[in-house]
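User: Just a sanity check before I run the rest of the batch. Below are the structure tokens for the first item. I only need the designed sequence back.
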């Protein structure tokens, strides 16, 4: 039973005796660019649909025969990946390793974290990822890209995509050297898969953050110490102005009300006290 992108697209029944083997051929068509998961009775692999306009590099190297216990150390010629080493968990013949490099994320894969330099697929023709052990990848990143993106070489890391968990996992990455043009790294993903080379933007460290917070606190205390006395004095002046206005208004009312009475009876005026 063949599953392609989670759906069963082919079935075939046959019998095998002890020591027998048989080759099955299925024809499938991928509609989306990028890796499409393929599964046959528990054996998993990826069928890549490639847009030639999105591919930025790649290489195919013949490995002939692989033997358990014999490490494979291979120099490759790609713009980013320089060398790969691993141990096969099973014997294999007519084997080959294929490396594909893309600048954009494949359509059916979640974007890797950070600022991504490139996406790289590394796979063998016959052996699945589960039969690869102790994989180490040597790669390089251009200083011009780091400078344009405002990144530092110390934040560069390799991320491996887990098909089972459907997420990116950070790989232990070590900076091993550099030149005026490139910075060189070595990463230990353990197995092969789809990878992303990315870097995290450099932000201010905790000492700088603490210093900024202390400066803001001091500025706030100074502002409070200067502004509060002025506000108090301004409040007193405002109260004085209110009292003056009230007294002036009361005098004006008295004058206005006294005009309503006859001049011959000043004793009846509410604003004048009666004479004894």
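Assistant: Here's the designed sequence for the first item:
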């Amino acid at each position: 039973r063949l599953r392609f992108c989670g759906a069963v697209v082919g079935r075939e029944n046959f019998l095998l005796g002890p020591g027998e083997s048989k080759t099955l051929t299925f024809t499938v068509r991928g509609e989306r660019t990028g890796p499409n998961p393929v599964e046959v009775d528990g054996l998993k692999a990826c069928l890549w649909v490639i847009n030639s306009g999105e591919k930025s590099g790649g290489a195919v190297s013949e490995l002939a025969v692989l033997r358990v216990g014999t490490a494979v150390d291979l120099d490759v010629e790609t713009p980013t990946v320089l060398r790969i080493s691993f141990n096969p968990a099973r014997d294999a013949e007519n084997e080959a390793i294929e490396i594909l490099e893309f600048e954009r994320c494949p359509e059916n894969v979640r974007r890797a974290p950070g600022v991504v330099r490139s996406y790289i697929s590394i796979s063998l023709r016959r052996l699945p990822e589960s039969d690869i052990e102790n994989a180490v990848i040597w790669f390089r990143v251009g200083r011009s890209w780091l400078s344009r993106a405002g990144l530092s070489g110390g934040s560069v890391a390799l991320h491996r995509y887990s098909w089972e968990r459907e997420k990116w996992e950070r790989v232990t990455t070590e900076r091993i050297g550099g030149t005026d043009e490139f910075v060189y790294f070595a990463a230990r993903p353990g197995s092969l898969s789809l990878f992303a080379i990315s870097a995290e933007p450099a932000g201010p460290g905790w000492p700088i953050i603490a210093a900024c917070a202390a400066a803001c606190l001091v500025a706030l205390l100074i502002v409070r110490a200067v502004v509060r006395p002025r506000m108090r004095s301004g409040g007193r002046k405002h109260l004085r102005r209110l009292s003056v206005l009230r007294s002036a208004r009361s005098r004006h009312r008295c004058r206005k009300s006294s005009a309503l009475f006859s001049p011959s009876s000043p004793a009846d005026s509410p604003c004048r006290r009666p004479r004894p």
